[in-house]
Amino acid sequence: MSAVLDPHGHAAGHGDHAHDDHHDHHAPTGWRRWVFATNHKDIGTLYLLFSFTMLMVGGVLALLIRAELFQPGLQLVNPELFNQFTTMHGLIMVFGAIMPAFVGFANWMIPLQVGASDMAFARMNNFSFWLLIPAALMLVGSFFMPGGAPAAGWTLYAPLTLQMGPSMDAGIFAMHIMGASSIMGSINIIVTILNMRAPGMTLMKMPMFCWTWLITAYLLIAVMPVLAGAITMTLTDRHFGTSFFNPAGGGDPVMYQHIFWFFGHPEVYIMILPAFGIISQVVPAFARKKLFGYASMVYATSSIAILSFIVWAHHMFTTGMPLTGQLFFMYATMLIAVPTAVKIFNWIATMWQGSMTFETPMLFAVGFIFVFTMGGFTGLILAVAPIDTQLQDTYYVVAHFHYVLVAGSLFAMFSGFYYWAPKWTGVMYNETRGKVHFWWSLISFNVTFFPMHFLGLAGMPRRYADYPMQFADFNAVASVGAFFFGFAQLYFFLFIVLPTMRGKGEKAAQKPWEAAEGLEWEVPSPAPFHTFENPPKLDATATKVIG
């Protein structure tokens, strides 16, 4: 493999190419540092800031949806615009907020955790980030195109997509670009983990966060082209006279669903496996114990990834598939609950009889386990085909996947932020504010999404701008909760993220959490611009540097 170049064009990460003194710690400054960033820490920061911006955009759309649903009747928007909001909220949150945020964590932490000098392909890393900006602008800008944004739901089902205005094409192009970005990021992560680990760090000594990301990266490479295929067929149906999904020309709209969900179900695990990795780092640190069942965690993660390819049609129980198909997908879905449960039991066993303290990272980790488990149970209920037939496309499904994705992915990210931010910024966040953020988020999240289970059981369909009077009370509660939850994240940014980014707060020790393990705690806080230019020599556990 050729040498990896740092921003000065010098080879980095090889003992015989150590830097000369005169530019040992001179990071590029000003706008050039960010536009031409090749340092994994800077690119990680860019990803995290981008994803938080998109979280706010998607969050505003969510609050517009909840404002409309605060009471029956049409308050603010017409049904067409309402459907644009639901579609764009989903697309922006999945492709603009959750996925780039986890790539940000990967960029920051993987080289530090495996003792690499940087990511394997530094310039490709820069390119994969900057691709997201035009894609995001195209997505958000689709509101201002003739006919408004796409209004086919984030799943972009035919035949609605064949009837949308030009914004549909912009959306397809944006998702192609984001997919290319994901694939490049994944290649980078795989090569970094497999080729650039410090000597002595075998795969089975690697931190769980690296393991979950290695498996996630393979998943991304496997399924992003499937999404690209589905939306390309949509594009040719729209403009080039093909009939993949048009029954009038012999096509089949249900085929689109099969192709989309063959991407979409592994995608759900792409958005949760890195979260599992973060929780597997945080829980042992605050329980002051080794992670229980490390090998079983690795195998469980791999099993989830493999099984995720054979469960896709549990999203399609009402499409008229044969009974045999329903049974297969029902049992396969129940099977995937087993490795997921293994992880939850392992985290609980790690905490069992540990000397636990509840700083903010641990609060979010425990909150994650509690609320994610609830989301898992509702998923198990929806896996039962006869029940799903009743609950298909109701608010029960909305409740289920928000418990998994908001309380799952988002809470894990918050946990990871509080855990690693002292290493990133060199200062400790304000513990009291962190705890306020946790309790405010946890309570308002449950106030928002728990009533949706009842709405779904009572038969309220999702993506409807209006509803009968009997659903009014729970909708009002959910809408109030949503605004509280949204303001909690604004509080997080203004009073926790900004002060730590500016270096306000007490100085962080090199290892702020006494029981935290891993190479990232062997470098100073804040982590210097260049780390591990000479590969570290590891102790037997591959968590500490010796000599």
Automatic annotation (TrEMBL):
The chain crosses the membrane at residues 46-67, 87-108, 129-152, 172-196, 208-235, 255-279, 291-315, 327-349, 361-385, 397-418, 438-456, 476-498. One of its GO terms (biological process) is respiratory electron transport chain. This is Cytochrome c oxidase subunit 1. GO terms for cellular component: plasma membrane; respiratory chain complex IV. PANTHER family: CYTOCHROME C OXIDASE SUBUNIT 1. It is found in: Cell membrane; Membrane. It is a multi-pass membrane protein. It holds the Pfam family COX1. GO terms for molecular function: cytochrome-c oxidase activity; heme binding; metal ion binding; oxidoreductase activity. It catalyses: 4 Fe(II)-[cytochrome c] + O2 + 8 H(+)(in) = 4 Fe(III)-[cytochrome c] + 2 H2O + 4 H(+)(out). It comes from the Bacteria. It is an enzyme of class 7 (translocase). The gene is ctaD. Its EC number is 7.1.1.9. InterPro entries: Cyt_c_oxase-like_su1_dom (IPR023616), Cyt_c_oxase-like_su1_sf (IPR036927), Cyt_C_Oxase_1 (IPR000883), Cyt_c_Oxase_su1_BS (IPR023615), Cyt_c_oxase_su1_dom (IPR033944), Cyt_c_oxidase_su1_bac (IPR014241).
